[in-house]
Write a structure and sequence with these properties.
heterodimer, A: about 220 residues, alpha/beta, six-stranded mixed beta sheet, four-stranded antiparallel beta sheet, globular, B: about 850 residues, alpha+beta, six-stranded mixed beta barrel, 24 helices, 22 strands
Chain lengths: ~220, ~850
């Protein structure tokens, strides 16, 4: 999936102050490319992710995803976009606590109107958690939870993946294991991935590093 | 850090918890305070007017005619002690309006009070245009045949001052219309309106004959410093029969307040339910609050603060919140009391001033503190035991150390509260047992259904699947919401169904079999002529039953007279103790009949309507079932009665249930024929009339030919009963609605919290591509299912409970009417549904999880 970010601007009002978070940002991402988005706290990484996920709209500019401008899509179309074309991996894992590992993975299928349990199970198998399928998130370790989250994000075959500091809550060894799985799958499936991280080593694994500084993108 | 400073900082940081705690606890306490103020108001009024009720310092009274020896003993004692006394005889009879010298055939039953010149020593009556007639101001009724009649009677008969009334065989002139009567306060409803006349004219009326329904009293004035207890004891030695009551103002007022206490006892139980509901809310929120605070506790402990110090801080927090809740609810109740006084004054027929005294406030405060400590203390204790290592965990720490046995004191506390509030071990235990059984049953049903739904979830649509999974897997919060809704709804169903069932029970005519007129005090000598008259006039006499006065003296050879004087026993006496005492010592009415009437049903043993042959053993007795239960006897037990000084023995061979609302002459005790025929007796009869004219004719004929016979209009009696019932039902409904409101507040708050906890889940659903409308549907469906299931279960269980109570307590069928219940509950469910939708909409505004 090809992404073209063109001259986007985004500001927030905090009290009486206006904060310009993104200022004429431009960014082109090729289909199947993995980019690492680096930046200090408050540099606009989260805002950028929200815009790319269609959760927020830019003040100005456009985000073209395979030629379709997200800023011009209706709320309903944005939901469809996320349901069919976007996978997300969070730093806090964000699994639904009352659903089992299998049900969490299955959720992505269900949202798309499918209920293929065997496919969901295959994905759990791929992340090495087949035997933990009936376990609830509270029964899983942090690394296991993140692997379930990866399976959930990729299982329905989205062409775009947003990964928000996926190892931020994991120890080094577990984080490495999770990242290996994530990169392996993304590359195998030729998925476009935008990886937000603070970790320079991790960013080094990406095809390209993009830094957000002062509301602008520096490649 | 000093305790106060630490405590205050900690206290201020938990504002939302503090607010909810105070709101929830205050709502729970309001009901208890209302009932308490009602109780204190009555007790206060009764205590202040205690001497007025008996018009004296000491009263000797009995419902049987005193023996000459007893009269001699009493009067000799009073003369020796130089105590002044008045005689007071109360009886019922028809009084007839007289126009000129022609008798106008219009009569009504009246409550006739014949008093001697000394009466009253306290209290008085207020007469229309003549003002209050207190002690020493009654001479006018003794100088000539003059009577004072209540305003109701003057209206019913259409008489005014100066008109004439025939009472028994004597004509009296109406000397005054009574507007207010201080002797009959708090008596519930009177069978008939009051009339006061001179005792000097009692013999001329010829009303008091053998077996007449009358109360004979001595009203005694004691000197200022007299020792009431020792005088009571001395009199008791002279009159050992405890069917003769010797009571002072306090005991008398306790007896007067009994029927109202019964109402307040039941109201207290409903308010206890309200309080328990608020405890459920408090428990849920405290648990949630502590879960969030566990890390803070661990940090404090890691910094070297002792657990005991933290416990003191939190204990003080709990006490302060409870105090605040009691203060706020008291302020609210005190502000609203004046507007409630009018209504409750109508209920008891007296001007009431609601009040809360220091003792009652202390009681409520102790009760609330006890509840808070026992329900929430274990949570705090468990939370403070959480290891310090929690601070090294990434995920939120969980409250795990609370064991079920921490709550045993709470369970015992609630049982004790129920018994004390109901003033009855049986009713209190039944209430708690029933409530526990209902909650367990509802819990089992809920668990069963949610487990089934979870299993079947795969076959359901996406929205239903997730709604079902949420219900089954967030069991604690789902169940808390469910149980609040369930208790509120079941209580509503039960109260409304019971009310309509009881109303139907009072007003039904049993397929037109219920009589219209009920006659009593028909003398043995009048019986034959009465039967003839009925035949001549072609009246439809539905029953004619003999009534013999007797007294139960032995059960299986053991004497029953072990009665203490009223107020002599322990301070806390349950209703069962009182009933058992009363029933064992009271005079009883006996009868006999060859077969059971249509209003009686045999439930155990064999009814024998054949003449008794005492050579084959003791004669047989049939007892009314609940009377037998209260007496503690069953089939095969031997009872001995004193009937006019002769011991009559019988063995219980059958138990019956009686439909008292048939208003047919019925008795607790029926002897086999052939035992009591020779005993002195009176008769009871019932007549069914075809028209208003016939009713009027029966009244005038009976008043003319049998002036000593008393006659009641059943429809009038039913009207009076339903009037009192309506007022009582309103009080109960008022408290039930309060309970329902508390349930709604608690469940809205719990639902808010339940949804708040799932805010992240809503955001996640949205980020995964689920449309907002679909997300809303999941939560709406969840709450719709919860409400629907609750509605069905509460209607079913509420109806079953009504049927059980109607069958076992009132021996009748329940009328299952849902025309009011369903709309009330639908509104409740709809309110919840709307609130949930609004809350989800609000929570969905912030759905970005990045």
């Amino acid at each position: 999936m090809k992404i073209e970010v063109q001259n986007i601007n985004k500001h927030f009002i905090q009290g009486k102050k206006t904060i310009q978070v993104l200022n004429e940002v431009n960014l082109d991402i090729k289909s199947g490319e993995i980019i690492a988005l680096l930046g200090k706290s408050g540099s606009g990484k989260t805002t950028m992710l929200s815009l790319l996920a269609g959760l927020d709209r830019p003040d100005r500019g456009s985000i073209l995803v395979d030629g379709v401008d997200l800023a011009k899509l209706s709320e309903e179309d944005l939901c469809d976009f996320r349901a069919k074309k976007l996978g997300i991996v969070f730093q806090q894992f964000h699994l639904i606590p009352h659903l089992t590992a299998l049900e969490n993975v299955l959720l992505s299928f269900e949202i798309n109107g499918e209920n293929d349990q065997s496919k969901a199970m295959e994905w759990l198998d791929m992340v090495g958690l087949r035997e933990r399928a009936d376990h609830f998130p509270s029964m899983l370790s942090g690394g296991e939870q993140q692997r379930v989250a990866i399976a959930r994000a990729l299982s329905f075959g989205p062409p775009l993946l947003l990964a928000d500091e996926p190892t931020g809550n994991l120890d080094v060894e577990t984080g490495k294991h999770v990242i290996d799985i994530l990169f392996k799958m993304v590359r195998e499936k030729k998925i476009t991935m935008i990886l937000v991280t603070h970790d320079e080593d991790l960013a080094g694994k990406a095809d390209r590093i993009v830094r957000l500084v002062g509301g602008k993108c520096l490649s | 850090m000093p305790f106060i400073k630490f405590f205050w900082k900690d206290f201020k940081s938990d504002r939302s918890f503090n607010w909810f705690f105070v709101l929830c606890a205050a709502l729970g306490i309001i009901g208890l305070l209302l009932v308490e103020s009602f109780r204190v108001g009555i007790e206060d009024k009764v205590a202040r007017n205690a001497k007025n009720f008996i018009a004296s310092d000491l009263s000797i009274s009995t419902r049987r005619a005193l023996e000459p020896k007893e009269i001699e003993n009493i009067e000799k004692y009073l003369a020796e002690k130089k105590y002044t006394y008045a005689k007071w005889t109360e009886t019922y009879s028809l009084v007839m309006k007289i126009s000129g010298n022609q008798e106008e055939h219009f009569s009504k039953l009246a409550d006739l009070n014949f008093v001697t010149k000394e009466f009253p020593f306290y209290g008085g009556v207020v007469l229309e245009d003549q003002g209050k007639k207190g002690p020493g101001e009654w001479s006018v009724i003794h100088s000539e045949p003059l009577l004072w009649i209540s305003r109701d009677l003057s209206w019913e008969l259409g008489v005014k001052v100066g008109d004439f009334l025939k009472v028994g065989e004597t004509q009296f002139k109406v000397g005054g219309i009574i507007l207010q009567d201080q002797f009959s306060s708090f008596r519930g409803f009177n069978l008939a309106p009051k009339v006061f006349l001179s005792h000097d004219f009692l013999p001329q009326t010829e009303l008091i004959k053998f077996g007449s329904t009358a109360t004979y009293s001595y009203a005694i004035k004691l000197p200022e410093n007299a020792e009431l207890k020792s005088i009571q004891a001395e009199l008791r030695e002279l009159v050992p029969d405890k069917a003769v009551k010797i009571v002072g103002p306090t005991e008398s007022s306790q007896q007067i307040g009994r029927s109202l206490n019964l109402l307040t006892d039941y109201l207290s139980l409903i308010t206890l339910m309200t309080y328990l509901l608020s405890l459920v809310g408090l428990y849920y929120f405290t648990q949630h609050f502590l879960s969030k605070k566990l890390k803070t506790f661990s940090i404090y402990k890691a910094m070297g603060i002792k657990t005991s110090f933290l416990f003191k801080v939190n204990f003080t927090h709990l006490v302060l919140l409870t105090f605040t809740a009691v203060f706020i609810s008291t302020t609210l109740v005190v502000s609203f009391l004046p507007s409630l006084e009018g209504y409750f004054s109508r209920l008891v027929g007296e001007d009431l001033v609601f009040r809360l005294n220091a003792l009652s406030l202390l009681r409520i405060l102790t009760l609330s503190l006890g509840g808070s400590m026992m329900a929430l203390g274990p949570l705090f204790w468990g939370a403070l035991q959480t290891p310090v290592a929690t601070i090294f965990q990434d995920l939120p720490a969980e409250l795990k150390r609370i064991r079920f046995y921490y709550f045993i004191p709470l369970a015992l506390y609630i049982v004790i509260l129920a018994v004390v509030l109901a003033n009855s071990i049986k009713v209190g235990s039944f209430f708690i047992g029933g409530l526990t059984a209902m909650v367990c049953l509802a819990g089992l049903c809920f668990k069963g259904v949610t487990v089934l739904m979870d299993k079947a979830a795969r076959r359901l649509s996406f929205v239903n699947r997730h709604a079902a999974k949420t219900l089954s897997r967030y069991f604690t919060s789902s169940f808390t919401i469910f149980i609040c809704l369930f208790i509120g709804m079941t209580l509503t169903t039960f109260i409304f169904q019971l009310e309509s069932s009881l109303r139907a029970e009072f007003t039904q005519t049993y397929g037109d079999r219920r009589p219209d007129l009920f006659l009593f005090d028909i003398q043995d000598t009048q019986a034959e002529r009465f039967v003839e008259l009925v035949k001549e006039e072609g009246w439809n006499r539905t029953m004619f039953a003999p009534m013999i006065r007797g007294r139960l003296i032995k059960i299986n050879g053991e004497l029953t007279q072990n009665r203490q004087e009223p107020g002599e026993g322990e301070n806390f006496q349950t209703r069962e103790d009182e009933n058992a005492e009363r029933i064992r010592n009271r005079g009883v009415n006996l009868s006999y009949r060859p077969q059971l009437s249509w209003s009686e049903t045999l439930v155990e043993g064999q009814f024998n309507g054949e003449a008794c042959d005492d050579s084959k053993g003791p004669c047989e007795i049939s007892l009314e079932q609940s009377y037998a239960r209260r007496l503690g006897v069953g089939l095969g037990d031997k009872l001995i009665f004193d009937v006019s000084g002769i011991e009559v023995e019988g063995v219980v061979t059958s138990l019956r249930t009686v439909k008292w609302t048939s208003f047919e002459p019925n008795f607790f005790i029926l002897f086999q024929p052939g035992v009591l025929e020779e005993a002195p007796k009176t008769y009871l009869s019932s007549i069914k009339v075809k028209s208003f004219e016939e009713r009027r004719k029966v009244f005038s004929k009976v008043a003319e030919l049998f002036p000593t016979v008393s006659m009641l209009e059943v429809s009038e009696l039913v009207r009076k009963i339903t009037m009192v019932f309506d007022l009582m039902a309103m009080a109960i409904k008022f408290i039930s609605f309060l309970s329902l409101f508390v349930a709604l507040v608690v469940l809205v708050a719990v639902s808010f919290n339940h949804l708040e906890l799932r805010k992240r889940e809503m955001g996640l659903f949205y980020m995964l591509g689920l449309k907002t409308e679909v997300i809303k549907k999941i939560y709406s469906r969840e709450f719709s299912f919860l409400s629907l299931f609750c509605l069905i279960l509460s209607v079913v269980l509420g109806s079953v409970l009504t049927a059980v109570i109607m069958k076992n307590v009132f021996n009748s069928e329940a009328i299952l009417r849902l025309d009011f219940v369903i709309p009330v509950m639908s509104v409740l469910a709809l309110t919840l549904f709307i609130i949930v939708n609004l809350r989800v909409r609000q929570l969905m505004k912030n759905r970005n999880l990045f």
